[in-house]
Please model this.
Amino acid sequence: MSENELHPTTAEAAAPVIEDDPIEVRRAKRAAIIAAGGNPYGNAFDYTAHAAQIEADHAGLADGESTEVAVSVAGRVLAKRVQGKITFLTLRDTTGDIQLFCRVNALGEDAYDQLKDLDLGDWIGAHGCVMRTRRGQLSVAVEAFELLSKAIRPLPEKFHGLSNKEVRYRQRYVDLVVNTEVRDTFEKRFKVISAIRRFMEDNGFYEVETPILHAIPGGANARPFETHHNALDREFYLRIATELHLKRLLVGGFERVFEIGRQFRNEGMDPYHNPEFTTMEAYQAFSDLEGMKSLTKGFVQAAALAACGTLQIQYQGHRIDLGGEWRDATMIDLINEQIDEPVSIHMERAELERIARANGVGQIEDAWGAGKIIAELFEACVEHTLVQPTFVCEHPLEVSPLAKKKPGEPELTQRFELFICGHEYANAFNELNDPIDQAERFRAQVEAKDLGDDEAMGYDADYIRALEYGMPPAGGVGIGIDRLVMLLTDAESIRDVLLFPHMRNEAPAAGERSASGAAAASASARTAAAAATAATTTASACDRVAGDPAAACAPIDFSKVAIEPLFQDEVDFDTFSASDFRAVKVKECVAVPKSKKLLQFTLDDGTDADRVILSGIHAYYEPEELVGRTLIAITNLPPRKMMGISSCGMLLSAIHQEPGEGGELEERLNLLMVSDRIPAGAKLY
Model:
């Protein structure tokens, strides 16, 4: 760090302190330390003990007893209590909290005054001997300390609770400081990945690394992210799966390979999906589906024991037994257990479509065959019923382009998916190693893409060439690491187990300052010109454009907005009065599984019972940003089933059109939100 970087500017040193602005107060302290020749962002510190170690080593120390055991500790100050000539600090390090017992007699007047001037959030190092106070608190009696890093921004007083989840996801660095259970979740994640890696290595698998940039998206049905390679002047795709490269290694003679790595799918986000996620895929030559079942059970149990210490776990109110025998059943048998009319892969498509519609399957595409309709029936009627571990076998060929056909049943495949508590965790195949068959399936995928299926795979000619050299019979399995961590930490959303989940652009709520507005407001203490700029910026930030966070801080231009003409037909007053418009509070909001559009709202409508309403607005809002909002709903519409869920009412939105990037008009939607001062159930007139 240069001298210029360390010392404040003249304007900063002369800046008046705004006493009720904690950031300005801390900036002034920083400047004072530098002016006095100190360094508020210290150097390396040689600590000798962690809080947990001190606690373990001195568990038997009696109340009021002191030791001559000298330790050096380092961490963040999370609490401060000044009592005259004694100050108590709570120091948090990577293992836990330890109390620092600080006396003016031990530190001296000057050092003690500096210690009292510390702020919550500051990093310090301290030296002293271990003791226990008369009240029984294990402590370090501080003889010397040094400031390691000055915190300019204060830690929030309250940083937990559902209403702050979006802030917690965005500011994970603060979440980890304030909420210790979050750190526990990620420590379990580390243990899960480590346990799976050890299990695979102990079973003779080599860990390998394959490309992230793919010339052709393959290995799964998903929409890829696209990118451009400048040097080669060609388009590439971020990988959606590691499968095809790993199986190339079987062709090359490796017998057992696996990879733990990131996948990227350009899809919607919901509690079980993030566009960037982690999987483990493994392939074993000369194995089959039964071998993959044994392997899957083994690494899942190893992960559970490492993270939880038991195979009996709790997930979202369900007790899950990961020990013992896991159920094994076919997809069609499971469907027939749940519906009144039995189905089979040999039925006419029209009959299958009729049964599917009668059992809650929503939109059915013309391009879907019997296999795809059966897969959709399974999703709608069966998935949520599979609580205990279940291997679901014999998937239709139409949705399994990389699996071997079932002998005697060419419309079905040798494939399983592992379901636990209504969600898929692993996917496995008897791997297809016939290059002629594989080429035909790739061509079918290309045809599906031409018909509008943007999740279909491309034709990978190099992979076909590899198979033509001969790939041994093999079993393969992939598992979502994030979902497994969710299961083992009882997390309700994938964002709870990702350190830095993807979010929409950050935008301030009404009346709050944006990041740039806050910076301008801070600068207003130093120059009148900056103050004027801040006032302008803050004023323009007061109106939030729903679904368009980038426009949140800009003046709104309505000149190009297209509004639908007013209805000319009159509605009689009695008919209009029959609609019951109410203010409703959003208690919970989640994405509907398997739907890219629907959000499911649990609402307080002023009655004793929760109201559930589904709304197709996921393209404009993420669930967490709506929790706690007050909305307007029509509450006396007849219930309507969507995706098998009964929706009781309708939320009101305002819709208009604006020119998009290509100049064509695109729809914009703003959910109607009103003041939180309006109580739930208030009627609109």
